[in-house]
Amino acid sequence: MTPFADDNPLFRSVSISYVQGTVRGPSEKEASVRFLIDSGATYSLLPEPVWQGIGLAPQREMEFVLADGTTVRRSVSECRLALPQGHGHTPVVLGQPGDAEALLGVVTLEILGLVFDPFRRILQPMRTLLV
Known about the structure:
CATH architecture: Beta Barrel
Shape: globular
Distance between the termini: 49 Å
CATH superfamily: Acid Proteases
Order of helices and strands: HEEEHEEEEHEE
Strand content: 35-45%
Number of domains: 1
Number of helices: 3
């Protein structure tokens, strides 16, 4: 018997997952954002219309490596981010034209004390150690 994707829990767990959140800039302007949970991304990314709409400005530049190995320089800022599972202050990459989707990266997840469960496709509190 050949296992099909529907029968195999590993294949059922491979999916794109999103979470709805709110971002707030320094002037208290807010925007509702649908984030793609991207456990492969280090920093979260806000599309250009979102970060401009809440009044973010570049604070520094960093180099990032894309999935294809290309290195790019992008501006980074900080904002307040609220998810149903928690809220906090986080660095964000300021998206450029063509960056259509907001990404939720691992730095933000760690700041919020969350981890992504890829099998249940949910965010949950991380087990933290104080050593």
